[in-house]
């Protein structure tokens, strides 16, 4: 049961995810969360170093789709200038939005990795689907009440992961 909340990898920032490493693991597409994964939840657009990261992925032939539980206007405002496909109001951890993103990229679940900052939505959703998942440290802590409750459960899960030697950096 708990295994469904455990990511395959845990990194500090999405920028630490390298295109060559994904290619070496036969990853052809990324499904990424938006808020607190790519940028802070209240940051409307991508900083230059994130735009460069997107470009490195594209150059390596890795497709990207943003799958966010946030509303259409927030997700569109972020993704459209970057020409990145997206699914908003995704209702993660439900699998439907992930499946749609995978279909739109013309890939299979084995070909993609899900990147996100929340165990209960991003990682659990990916694992229910049978896709690989990378957990990132949240860019900024948020105020949303739902997220606050999720974070409490997350802290518990993270302490279990730490005890099992799963987390290799100190925070
Ligand atoms: Mg998030």
Can you describe this structure?
The model has no long low-confidence stretch (mean pLDDT 92). Helix content is 38%, strand content 14%. The chain has a 6-stranded parallel β-sheet with strand order 1-6-5-2-3-4, sandwiched between helices. It has one domain (2-163): Rossmann fold. The chain has 6 helices and 6 strands. It has helices at 19-24, 48-59, 72-79, 96-104, 119-129, 145-163, and strands spanning 9-11, 29-32, 63-67, 86-87, 112-116, 132-136. By secondary structure, it is of the alpha/beta class. It starts with 8 loop residues before the first strand and ends in an 8-residue tail after the last helix. Residues 33, 35-37, 116-118 line the site of magnesium ion. Magnesium ion binds next to loops.
- Helicity, in percent? 25-40%
Using DSSP, what is the number of strands? 6
* Strand line-up of the largest beta sheet: 1-6-5-2-3-4
Shape: globular
At the first level of CATH, the class is: Alpha Beta
Spans with pLDDT under 50 lasting ≥5 residues? none
CATH superfamily: HAD superfamily/HAD-like
Gyration radius, rounded:
15 Å
| CATH architecture label | 3-Layer(aba) Sandwich
CATH fold group: Rossmann fold
Q: Which ligands does the model contain, each kind named once?
A: magnesium ion
Assembly annotation: single chain
How widely separated are the two ends?
Answer: 26 Å
């Amino acid at each position: 049961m708990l295994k469904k909340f455990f990511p395959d990898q845990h990194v500090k920032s999405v920028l630490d995810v390298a295109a060559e490493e994904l290619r070496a693991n036969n990853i052809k597409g990324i499904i990424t969360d938006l808020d607190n994964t790519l940028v802070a939840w209240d940051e409307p657009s991508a900083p230059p170093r994130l735009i460069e990261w997107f470009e490195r992925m594209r150059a390596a032939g890795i497709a990207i789709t943003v799958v966010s539980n946030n509303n259409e206007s927030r997700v569109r405002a972020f993704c459209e200038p970057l020409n990145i496909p997206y699914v908003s109001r995704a209702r993660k951890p439900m699998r439907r939005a992930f499946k749609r993103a995978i279909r739109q990229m013309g890939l299979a679940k084995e070909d993609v990795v899900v990147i996100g900052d929340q165990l209960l939505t991003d990682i659990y959703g990916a694992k229910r689907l049978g896709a690989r998942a990378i957990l990132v440290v949240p860019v900024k802590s948020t105020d949303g009440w739902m997220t606050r409750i999720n974070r409490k459960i997350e802290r518990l899960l993270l302490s279990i992961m730490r005890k099992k030697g799963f987390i290799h950096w100190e925070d």
